[in-house]
UniProtKB/TrEMBL annotation:
Domain Histidine-specific methyltransferase SAM-dependent: from-to ranges: 13-320
InterPro entries per UniProt: EgtD, EgtD_Methyltrsf_superfamily, MeTrfase_dom, MeTrfase_EgtD-like, SAM-dependent_MTases_sf
Phylogenetic lineage: Bacteria, Pseudomonadati, Bacteroidota, Flavobacteriia, Flavobacteriales
Protein name as catalogued: Dimethylhistidine N-methyltransferase
Pfam families xrefs: Methyltransf_33 (PF10017)
Length: 321
């Protein structure tokens, strides 16, 4: 029998790149966009005029903090668990309000990066010193498993920023099922979701004039060059975002402008690109009330209410089980 040994990979990034660039069509998982430089570029994206998502969600939380707080608050207090907390800019709107109201709660930001958690804890200590913070380092799955058995008091799970959009709808159902299974009756799940809208507005959000999103996307090539000893030429690729208003999928690609071959030395791999061949790098799925109702139904979550801006650009949904 001809048995070939599967290659051993030093890092999850190495494995994803090997598998993604040896398949057709080529792809790389969007989670690898976020190295140190990627985090920095994403911070810049959130301040871009075209990238409306962050500002709209901030506005929704600011305007409705009282009502949202009333939903979260409970007699025995609550634990506020945030998946992918980042710099916590939007969450701080809620935390400040909870402090003013003297709510009995603890804030548990979850992130894979210890560095992100340390920075967040430090900024909270300076800006809202009263908040009791208990950082949880790990993947969402690890932390959700850990929290599933915790029944001492009400849990409110936050998932802001339309991060759900970076999963395909099928992946989103699987993820929301995990959330639902970590919840007990009375617990809540609060999720921010970018909505279907004028296709041009969505497309512009992923194709800003200053080229920050292009740099963010191409940072994957920079990362492969550095971490996997590859020789990608950044000028041989164009950043190409697309939006399909029927499915709600905004997808980003890197498109090779010429036929060429790239060496990825750490993987002992030669990757051939045809002229105009693509690498799919990200999905930013947009939803509406109908597709959110479908997601919730599939995942076993019950939608209890939602808040939006005037034009329904962005919505924050509250679910229970
Ligand atoms: C983090 N995530 C929700 C962003 C999005 O809109 O999909 C990431 C992003 N990619 C390009 N611009 C922003």
């Amino acid at each position: 029998m001809n048995q070939t040994k599967p290659p051993e990979f030093k890092t999850p990034f190495a494995e994803d790149v090997f598998k993604g660039l040896t398949s057709y069509p080529k792809k790389i998982s969007s989670k690898f966009l976020y190295d140190e430089k990627g985090d920095e570029l994403f911070q810049k994206i959130m301040d871009l005029p075209e990238y409306y998502l962050t500002g709209k969600e901030y506005q929704i939380l600011m305007r409705n903090r009282e009502e949202i707080g009333n939903e979260f608050a409970s007699f025995e207090g609550f634990d506020l668990i945030e998946l992918g907390a980042g710099d916590g800019k939007k969450t701080k709107v809620l935390l400040r309000h909870f402090e003013e109201k003297n709510y009995d709660y603890k804030y548990l930001p979850v992130d894979i990066s210890r560095n992100v958690l340390d920075q967040l804890s430090e900024s909270l200590e300076q800006e809202i010193p009263g908040v009791e913070v208990s950082p949880q380092q790990g993947t969402y799955a690890m932390v959700l498993n850990r929290l599933a058995d915790y029944r001492e008091r009400k849990k409110v799970i936050l998932f802001l920023g339309s991060n759900i959009g970076n999963l395909t709808p099928e992946e989103a159902v699987a993820f929301l099922k995990k959330i639902a299974s970590a919840m007990n009756p009375g617990d809540m799940f609060f999720m921010g979701v970018d909505q279907k809208k004028d296709p041009q507005v969505i497309l512009d959000a992923y194709n800003d004039k200053a080229g920050v999103t292009e740099a963010f996307n191409k940072n994957l090539l920079v990362r492969m060059n550095r971490e996997l000893e590859a020789d990608f030429d950044l000028d041989a690729f164009v950043h190409w975002p697309l939006y399909n208003p029927e499915t709600g999928a905004a997808k980003s690609y890197l498109v090779s402008t010429k036929e060429h071959t790239v060496q990825i030395n750490a993987l002992n791999l030669e990757v051939h690109f045809q002229k105009w061949e693509t690498i799919h790098t990200e999905v930013s799925q947009k939803y509406d009330d109908t597709s959110i109702a479908w997601l919730a139904e599939e995942a076993g979550l019950k939608l209890s209410r939602s808040w939006a801006d005037k034009e329904n650009t962005f919505k924050n949904y509250l679910f229970q089980i």
